[in-house]
Design a protein that fits this description.
Pfam families: HupE_UreJ_2. Keywords: Membrane, Transmembrane, Transmembrane helix. This is HupE/UreJ family protein. The chain contains ten helices and no strands. The chain is mainly α and about 230 residues long. The longest helix has about 30 residues.
């Protein structure tokens, strides 16, 4: 957690706004030119490179990190955190593998817009919006699983743009998926360390709600970028 010149923890909403700016400058599931060149030219089994690319995607995936931040924001027990993260990983892994191996062709802009809205949904839920506005509470676990499907599908649609070689595709996708889950554990660990520290300060009580408004704003920014891309394509 960042600390200002008075020794107080910098409000998490500030970090959320930084993430919002980051999402504004990056399309979801972006792939660097060097990684793109490798994906398009690789043939045969490349277990370790695909493992690395999967982990890199998760650690640098702003959409995934924002969603995970929202999911664990008010979770304190490790067992509960593990359950929600497992549900997300199950959904993400399923559509990532099935989407690539079965050649599901779905518009990437629309899928990524839904991913942006998943961040909005999670933050809105953290704010108690469903009970206050609509008078009911959707199943939190089911929502994480369902949105996990969309997060995995978003990456699957992006990978299909690179005309991956069928030679070694199955083991390569398994390696990539394992890398994604390893990257998720690494990113989650860093988030949990920051969250655990922040929760011990008075800043958490003051800025928890504001931080979720910032998360919601970041989700709207990401979704808006994708809808704009869909309209202008």
């Amino acid at each position: 957690m960042l600390v200002n010149d008075r020794g107080d923890a910098v409000p998490a909403w500030l970090l959320g706004m930084v993430l919002c700016l980051m999402t504004a400058g990056a399309w979801a599931h972006g792939v660097s030119e060097s990684d793109k060149g490798f994906l398009q030219g690789a043939t045969g089994v490349h277990f370790l490179p695909y493992l690395y690319l999967g982990a890199k995607h998760m650690v640098t995936g702003y959409d995934h990190l924002l969603f995970l931040c929202g999911v664990i924001f008010f979770l304190y027990r490790i067992k509960e955190i593990g359950l929600y993260v497992t549900l997300f990983a199950l959904g993400h892994s399923t559509t990532l593998l099935l989407g690539v191996l079965n050649g599901w062709h779905i518009n990437a802009y629309l899928v990524d817009a839904i991913i942006g809205l998943s961040i909005v949904y999670r933050a809105f839920d953290n704010l108690g919006g469903f009970g206050t506005v609509f008078g009911f509470q959707p199943n939190k676990k089911a929502a994480v699983l369902i949105f996990g499907f969309f997060h995995g599908l978003g990456l699957a649609t992006k990978l299909q743009d690179f005309a991956l070689s069928p030679d070694g595709l199955v083991p390569n996708m398994i390696a990539f998926n394992i890398g994604v889950e390893l990257g998720q554990l690494l990113a989650l660990g860093m988030i949990l360390v920051l969250m655990r520290y922040w929760r011990t300060t008075a800043s958490f009580a003051r800025h928890a709600l504001t931080s979720n408004f910032a998360l919601m704003s970041a989700g709207f920014v990401l979704a808006g970028l994708q809808f704009t891309g869909y309209i202008s394509q």
